[in-house]
Amino acid sequence: MKLYSTKNHNLSVDFETAVFNSLPADKGLYMPTFLPLLDTEVIANWDKKSLQEIAFDLAYALLKDDITAEELKAIVDEAANFEAPLVPLDKDVFVLELFHGPSLAFKDFGGRFMSRIMSHFLKKEHKEIRILVATSGDTGGAVALGFLNVPGIKVTILYPKGKVSLIQELQLTTNGNNIEALEVDGTFDDCQALVKQAFLDKDLNEKYNLTSANSINISRLIPQMFYYANSYARLKNQFKDVTFVTPSGNFGNIAAGMIAHKMGLPVKQFIAATNSNDIVPQYLTTGVYTARPSVQTLANAMDVGDPSNFVRILDLYGNDKVELEREFSSIAFDDSQIKQAIVKVYQEKGYIMCPHTATAYLAIEAEKAAGNQTAENAYVMLSTAHPCKFPDVFEELNIAYEIPSSVDELYHKERQQKPMTKHFEDFKTYLLGEG
Ligand SMILES: *Cc1c(COP(=O)(O)O)cnc(C)c1O
Prior knowledge:
Helix content: 40-55%
CATH topology of the domain at 55-103 and 218-396: Rossmann fold
Bound molecules: pyridoxal-5'-phosphate
Number of strands: 14
Oligomer: single chain
Radius of gyration: 20 Å
Distance between the termini: 35 Å
Number of helices: 20
């Protein structure tokens, strides 16, 4: 696979370069130069295939010049080694549960695939790598658990102080070994700015082979296509159309689904549900993209004021807003709506949604209220995290959920984070002072 920059379509780098650079020097984002179209017969047969088999079809179509079929199969099987079940909520609404991996969030797909891709290339090249990752909560846990004890890789995670839940913090800070966590006195946007600046810093790049594990890394996006395709496969014999509703922050998850669609996955509509950080809904309404400082919400993994991956979505549609809006819409909900939705679904269905997932539910309610529902269409709402990652919300709402045993174990581990300011000079001094 060759990739260009969203800022320069003449650029052409190979997959390995894009994975380790993470960002092109012009600060655009890498996108595949060419998206192969899957055979309709292959897709028609997906109802007879497993998640892992469908995943391989997609990954191989993209990466067949970069990794042998046998090696890729092993990587895919290891990365997607947990299920992504569809739970019916209504006759035409299905929850796609993406929280059955080690960090209990959808980012495990990306974290596990990326770590194995990197380690595959590292084995060939004998490189040592330093990964810098900014997290608003869930990325860090998925990356930490994805990379834990992978030889030749050290991971530095930056997270905003006081803005992640206790369980998220425990997942980030209790790993030790090759994983270190910095607690930044600032917002997620400050963390992301520190990481972005580090990649452009000459001194740091001389000392380290820096790379990023954020959702801007192309190897994080590829595995996120898998579960869209798998859901389609499970529903395609019952419904004519599928609409995906994705709780969105940095817009990497939904971008992956949209790439799969460009590769032939039949999808009627993509709906990006956001919290009060409504940059993209505002853009669709006004035609002007205005980044803002993020505001804190109950769905904190979506507290993003300048969603990086949205340029990838625009790029997929030739930066043509009219074309984009034929297949894509976006809608925002505030904290009080999120809470109401959680309570309603719990009372009516006995199903517990995390606050992120609740935005997707609300988007479907809005669709139905607008009369957009048809009997032929299934709505798939992506459930991006397990509710237990947000204990404060459920305590307030007086809803009890089951805690997975992996979480119980975390409480007995020691937190090992180090404090950091939001100033780049401090971060740089710290990194240069390390071995
Ligand atoms: C990261 C995350 C999101 C947002 O995903 P993007 O790819 O950044 O849009 C939504 N929900 C949860 C639980 C997350 O961790």
